[in-house]
Design goal:
Layout lengths: L27 H4 L26 H9 L15 H4 L10 E6 L2 E7 L2 E7 L8 E10 L20 H18 L17
Antiparallel strand pairs: 1-2, 2-3, 3-4
């Protein structure tokens, strides 16, 4: 099994279930990963949620749970999800995240919406750069097959909301560029 959906290289290794997509795509079948968390007496048992929690949220959440300090000399992509996991709040502290393939932004997921900038149906497919982003309502179209029309009044408000978050994220990459593959560990960011 893969942490990014089923792989195609080594033959059949599971399914993305109800969703479309596999490894190296920005489709829900690649991005959605089930998680089970157990902490008796702390985390309520039996809760099922569709809220967004990203892998980068693990470090800040564990830091808070253990009393550890998060470095203040760099941008931390993760958010503390402890209150959500402990059942003290209904909503996750994360509303969305960018979906990259290598160094390229393929999509941005926000709440139950996803905006694709580059589409890729399969890890062996050819990426298609979109002249205009495709927006999908993941509740009505979980397989991401039918983009929402820009003039659809029920969804037109989502375009500027998602694009604003994309611009904010891109600005953060200028403020603090991503750590490149092969960078020595431990990494200490340059002082501004």
């Amino acid at each position: 099994l893969s942490d990014n959906g089923p792989e195609e290289i080594e033959g059949y290794h599971g399914t993305a279930g109800y969703w479309r997509g596999n490894y190296f795509t920005a489709l829900e079948g690649s991005l959605r990963v089930p998680a089970m968390i157990r902490w008796p007496g702390k985390i309520p048992a039996g809760k099922v949620t569709n809220e967004i929690v990203h892998m980068v949220d693990v470090a800040p959440t564990l830091a808070r749970a253990t009393g550890a300090k998060i470095p203040a000399d760099r941008i931390i992509d993760g958010v503390d999800q402890l209150g959500f996991l402990l059942g003290k709040q209904e909503k996750s502290n994360r509303e969305g995240f960018p979906a990259f393939n290598g160094d390229e932004l393929f999509a941005y997921k926000w709440r139950n919406w996803k905006m694709h900038f580059i589409e890729l149906d399969s890890m062996f497919g050819k990426p298609a750069r979109l002249n205009m982003p495709h927006l999908h309502n993941l509740i009505e179209d979980p397989k991401e097959l039918y983009p929402v029309d820009r003039v659809d009044v029920s969804a037109s408000w989502v375009f500027p909301v998602v694009l604003k978050r994309v611009v904010e994220f891109q600005k953060s990459l200028i403020a603090e560029p991503p750590i490149r593959l092969g960078t020595p560990d431990p990494y200490v960011p340059k002082k501004n």
